[in-house]
Amino acid sequence: MKKQIETEALKLATNSITKADEQLKEERKLKAAEIRRKAESIMADYKDDLSKDLYEKTIKEIREAELDTSDIIDVKPKIRKITGVK
Known about the structure:
76% helix, mainly alpha
């Protein structure tokens, strides 16, 4: 009985971590998209003040930029090892 409870508890913890990790990834993705939309909106306000090439390259940079959304807590390596969560 004790072993079964341990197994079920580990399974529940693992599934919960996996689900929470997926939710955090989606939150990061949505946050990055919102940051990009806002940056493009800001650039649209200055479009007439920039050359066409500079404006287009700036928009391209915004769309391709790596964004740091690390203020959302990541799964720690030890937990990754236990659960297999990436």
